[in-house]
Structures are given as structure tokens and as C-alpha cells.
Please model this.
Amino acid sequence: MTTEEPGVVTMLTGVGCPEVKVTVPVAMDGVHIPYQRPQIVEAKGLSRNRQEYLYKVVRPYLSDANEDATCPCPET
Model:
């Protein structure tokens, strides 16, 4: 926030995305400001190369109880 644009926040919506200006409520005495949750950003998942790396390199170091949840066989 700046003094030139009070209540306006500049943010990124993702890696490599352009900046976006969002107006946020500024609290004033006696004024109720409703709370609004931010938009949910879905994860893109791991690339095939990353899945293979985790399976081949990292999985051998995990306990049997954790290896399937942490480093499953790469998706086909």
C-alpha cells in the first residue's frame, strides 16, 4: 500500500504473471468491514521429470510407510 493509493495492494497471482492491483478495505472507527477469503489457486502438479526424479532418487531414502504417499510411481 502506498500513500498515493491508500487501500490498493499490488500483488502477483502466480509465478510469471503480471502484477494486479486489488482494493482492500481500510478499517475506520465504527465501520464493519466484511471479510472475504482470497481465491483458491489450484496446484498444477508435478512434471513427469520431477515425478521420475522423486521415484528414482528420493524414494529409496524413505521408510516403507511413507514412500507411496511421498514418491509414488510416476503417472503413465
